Amino acid sequence: MSLSRLSGVLRKTLIQAVPTVIGIVILNFLLLQLAPGDAADVMAGEAGAATEETMAMLRKQFGLDLPLLDQLLAYLGNLAQGSLGFSPRYNMPVAELIAQRLPGTLMLMGLSLSLALLLGIALGAVMALNAGRWPDRLLSVGSLIFYSVPGFWIGLMLIVLFSVKLGWLPSGGAETIGAGLSGLESLLDKARHMILPAASLALFYVAIYARLTRATMLEVASQDFIRTATAKGLTPLHVATRHILRNALLPVTTLAGMHFGGILGGAVVVETIYSWPGLGRLAFEAVMRRDFNVLLGVLLLCSLLVIIVNMVVDLLQAWLDPRIEVR
Fold first, then answer.
1. Which residue in 39, 174, 192, 286 has a CA-CA distance of 20 to 30 Å to 56?
2. Which of 44-48, 103-107, 172-176, 234-238 has the lowest mean pLDDT?
């Protein structure tokens, strides 16, 4: 792909992204105002009691006593200055709080999506190349099971099997607390803690990508240019990988970009089940504590990540099929 075409794609995406992000910020802000209570109510409840003067002081301190429009303008003004606001519950800037949790979620999501794509495409190719035979039927039943079972149930069953019964993997957390590990031992310890959460997030999408890859490969294999490639004397492996699979990946990559937002949503459940210190668990805690500045920051960051991932998908599709014009 030429550099001018790449810069054109980036420019058009940014032009479309700016009003989209502004609309998402305003909509999220207004929707969260419909939730009952605020951070001052939660802080007073946790303290056991609070006078009206204390409640008024807390709301004035955090700007919660301002009219809705003034709060929105103040929030947009902070964003324009590069600030995500201040968290009254954590008593620290929202940007610092998110920066602490973002690496954990990115690692978990990256591993989950990579695992889902690699396994899903590989299993789908095996199913398509053995269509109608026992490997295809066996894998179809397995993918249907993972497709129909909720993610939180898979997570709980994985904990019961691999943590409680077998004792092979830890049931929660991002690392062994107090172990004092460093270097390679620390990396291996963190990798062991990521296996179950990543598998819980990935298995549902493995089933989808496997079934989609199978269906698309069978459809592509029936087209004329595949018969032409076979008639030229190309080996079955060359035809399957360079012609059938490559064209079958187009809908898979499209769906992967759309699923990125779904994986972010699934991270809320998985990170809560596994006590994983990521953005999903932070968003859940922010909802429970009415810390709307934190929740708005998480939602804004998630929106930006989805836009970036979809831009990468556009570029990847243009690379897979040069006939595609990225608009």
1. 286
2. 44-48
Could you tell me which of 214, 262, 295 has the C-alpha nearest to residue 109? 262
Alpha-carbon distance of 267 to 110, in angstroms, equals 12
Nearest to 209 by CA among 143, 266, 154: 143
Exposure on the CB side of residue 104, measured as CA atoms within 13 A: 25
Query: From CA 272, how far away is CA 292, in angstroms rounded?
Result: 19
Beta-strand ranges (E) seen in 123-271 are none
pTM of the full structure: 0.72
Distance, CA of 95 to CA of 163 (rounded, Å)? 35
User: Residue 145: pLDDT above 70?
Assistant: yes
* Extended beta strands in the chain, E state: 86-87, 92-93
Kindly tell me if the per-residue pLDDT of 91 is higher than 50. Answer: yes
Question: At 326, is the pLDDT very low, low, confident or very high (cuts 50, 70, 90)?
Answer: very low
Q: Decide: 279 and 298 in contact? Cβ < 8 Å.
A: yes
CA distance 32 to 71: 12
Q: Measure the CA–CA gap between 249 and 81, rounded to whole angstroms.
A: 41
Return the DSSP state at 277.
Answer: -
Indicate the angle between helix axes 183-221 and 94-129, nearest 10 degrees. 50
* DSSP designation for 182: -
